[in-house]
Amino acid sequence: MQFDPDGTVPEDLSHAGSVVDKAIEYMMEQGIGELSVASALLGGALGLLARSMDDRAIAAVLRSALRSVESGELAAMRPPTTTRG
Questions:
Q1: Residues of the chain falling short of pLDDT 50
Q2: What's the rounded Cα separation, in Å, for the pair 34 and 36?
Q3: Which end of the chain lies in a sparser environment, N or C, as judged by fewer CB atoms within 10 Å?
Q4: d(CA 2, CA 68)
């Protein structure tokens, strides 16, 4: 992925996201488990990054993702849990 010099997001990012969403939907319909889908996507993403970035830049991307997890940004994507009482 390429960024403009001012750090703006490329125009094709939305399109790429839609394609990935459709691929996920298709794999789920095929009965592929969520963890397998996520692992395959992550592996593919890392492979793509490895072809276009050095290890230091990839580590920065991964640290940013980890900060998102640790700050709770991804928690909103989880389905609500039910408690039994």
A1: 1-2
A2: 5
A3: C
A4: 21
Q: At what angle do helices 55-70 and 34-52 cross, to 10 degrees?
A: 140
CB 46 within 8 A of CB 58: yes
Which of 60, 38, 39 shows the shortest CA–CA distance to 49? 60
Structure tokens at 42: 């992550």
Residue 45 CA to its chain's centroid (Å): 8
Question: What's the half-sphere exposure (Cβ side, CA atoms, 13 Å) at 65?
Answer: 9
Tokens of 70: 């640790």
**The token pair that represents 41 in the structure block:** 């996507």
Q: How many CB atoms lie within 10 A of CB 23?
A: 14
Residue 76 has what pLDDT? 83
Rg of the chain over all Cα atoms, to the nearest angstrom: 16
Give the integer Cα–Cα distance in Å for 30 and 28: 5
